[in-house]
Specification:
A: alpha+beta, 3-stranded mixed sheet, two-stranded antiparallel ribbon, 10 helices, 17% strand, globular, B: mainly alpha, 2 strands
């Protein structure tokens, strides 16, 4: 079993819901984000647009951060998830340097100014300090909501299928751009998506074998463009009041299969 | 770009889209890593030179050179590294047998190398002290000589490893193409030994100048400076060929924001000036001591500049396909 995620770039409408869901799930300090949307400029027939890539820890099968960690605080579970034992981390930041994707953050004092600097901590922050304490002076990153996975599986649930066993970002994505499942299972939804739409990993040439895959089913293959029209199309598609007729009225054409089917 | 993204209610992250500098090991508290790395090189060079010089005869300056090398590692390098840690009191977790990470982690290996050197180097210094100044019987002297050879070899090997592991730790990072080359540890070691030769000359001057020894040290210093200049030139040329991010780093060194450190502090002060002084003093008669002091100071500035410039231009490749 190896947990993995497929991110559909054509569906992602950069609403940042995954970023917010992760912050809420893990009570993240203000300046720490485990899930990020990175913006980049794309040239659409001469017009420069901003497009985005949602990124998080790739849970690499051959993770450089795990090899670099001098204390074994960063280690890989049998299900492929790379986790950090904060009690073992000495804060050397070698893993931060070694991660080719820069998905690790060192939790220093300046990363936690409080949600409203100069004011009393919010109740949410205070609750987080009790429920999900973060240790200053250690490194943090996405862990695929390992607590939810473990808890869900102990109750007989299936991650990626049952919400209670799936990562918070996957549950919250209103465009259904995130799919979670077992990469070792050839019949899983994640493998089906990767096969069908030509999934690709970020910087596969490093040989790190990331467990996070990307698909862009309008363009297919290894292309980093997620057309705004497709993003908007999938947005509309997920608004319950808007149907194919609405799409026709707005765009003046029939929605493509990719835009019409989740 | 920024104007567009700032309009959003949550700032969209822009890093890793274009090649981006590493900051953890050079900015803010990261300065401590830079200092620790400099003292690694200086300590390694000085100790090794002192150790090799004392093999045939334990001279006063050779003994003091090993002491200085040991002090630079134990009282400067290690404390700076520890001070950098987010959780310094847990440092023991990085040392075998509390971790098995030494199989893959250069930092864990480095900790191990440093600690073995600390012990073996200390014993070697103590043994040499008694061999040099102790009032020992012939049999005791023979036994101590054998022991000092054993700990000397162990300390020599481990100080070399202590000096070289920093380079390997950096060259391990695949996403930093400027560092990701086997040449880096070699450059660090050779520059470290050259700087060690300079510091040993300083020790020699302080403990009573031995003209013949200084002449030998200058000879080796000349050779290593030339070798290092060629290595650095080759390193930069290779960076241009290797990858666009490495090329960007090399350009930054040569004509970017780090260029003044590279040209003024490293090339002119750290390499050219000591080399010119070293060649000039070989043909000069009379008191060359002031020039030697200038060369030693310049050499040491070069040691700081080399590590600073390499750490400063650690530039990541973009994570996005088709970009950089």
């Amino acid at each position: 079993m190896r947990w993995g995620m497929v991110i559909n770039l054509a569906k992602c409408m950069r609403c940042h819901a995954c970023v917010a869901a992760c912050r809420i799930e893990h009570f993240l300090p203000l300046d720490i984000t485990w899930v990020k949307l990175i913006a980049h400029e794309v040239d659409e027939d001469g017009a420069v647009e901003v497009s985005t890539y949602p990124v998080r820890c790739n849970q690499c099968a051959d993770a450089p951060c795990v090899h670099a960690c001098p204390t074994e605080a960063s280690h890989q579970r049998e299900d492929g998830i790379v986790v950090i034992d904060s009690d073992k981390c000495i804060g050397c930041r070698y893993c931060v340097i070694a991660c080719p994707y820069q998905n690790r953050t060192f939790y220093s004092k300046d990363k936690d100014p409080g949600y409203f600097p100069g004011y009393e901590r919010t109740r949410f922050e205070k609750m987080g300090q009790k429920l999900y304490p973060h240790q200053r002076g250690t490194t943090e990153k996405c862990n695929f909501c390992v607590e939810r996975i473990d808890d869900g599986m102990s109750r007989g649930l299936t991650p990626g299928v049952d919400r209670d066993a799936s990562p918070a970002c996957v549950n919250t994505c209103q465009a259904r751009a995130l799919t979670f499942g077992d990469l070792d299972d050839p019949d899983s939804e994640v493998n089906r998506l990767i096969r069908r739409y030509g999934g690709f990993q970020l910087r596969a040439e490093y040989g790190t074998e990331p467990s996070v895959w990307y698909i862009d089913y309008r363009l297919g293959g290894n292309d980093n463009k997620a057309p705004r029209e497709a993003q908007t199309g999938s947005h509309i598609q997920h608004l319950s009041s808007v149907d194919r007729d609405a799409f026709r009225r707005i765009y003046g054409r029939e929605p493509a299969d990719a835009e019409a089917k989740p | 770009m920024k104007a567009q993204t700032r309009r959003q209610w949550i700032t969209t992250h822009e890093w890793m889209v274009k090649p981006m500098r590493q900051k953890e090991w050079i900015s803010g508290k990261g300065i401590l890593v830079w200092l620790a790395e400099v003292f690694s090189a200086l300590g390694m060079g000085t100790y090794l030179v002192g150790l090799l010089a004392g093999i045939s005869e334990i001279t006063t300056w050779a003994w003091w050179a090993t002491v200085l090398g040991w002090v630079l590692i134990v009282l400067f390098k290690l404390p700076f590294h520890l001070a950098y840690l987010g959780r310094p009191l847990r440092f023991w977790r990085a040392i075998p047998p509390f971790t098995k990470a030494w199989r893959t982690s250069w930092l864990a290996r480095g900790m191990f190398f440093s600690i073995v050197f600390t012990g073996a180097g200390f014993l070697q210094i103590v043994f040499w002290y008694f061999l040099r100044w102790g009032d020992l019987s012939a049999s005791a002297s023979d036994a101590l000589t054998v022991l000092s050879w054993i700990v000397g070899i162990v300390a020599g090997v481990f100080i070399l490893l202590t000096g070289v592991y920093c380079g390997f730790a950096m060259s391990y990072c695949k996403s930093l193409p400027f560092w990701n080359t086997g040449l880096l540890p070699i450059v660090f070691v050779i520059m470290g030994v050259a700087d060690g030769l300079a510091l040993t000359m300083g020790v020699n001057l302080i403990t009573g100048a031995d003209e013949a020894a200084i002449s030998d040290l200058e000879f080796w210093s000349r050779i290593l400076l030339v070798v290092n200049a060629l290595l650095i030139a080759g390193y930069l040329a290779r960076a241009y060929q290797r990858h666009s991010a490495a090329e960007l780093a090399a350009q930054d060194l040569i004509k970017g924001s780090t260029a003044w450190v590279f040209w003024v502090l490293l090339v002119i002060l750290g390499i050219a000036t000591p080399l010119v002084i070293s060649v000039a003093t070989a043909f000069m008669e009379g008191d060359t001591e002031p020039l030697l002091i200038v060369a030693i100071v310049c050499h040491t500035i070069g040691a700081f500049a080399l590590k600073y410039s390499v750490l400063k231009v650690g530039i990541y490749r973009s994570v996005l396909p088709g970009v950089g």
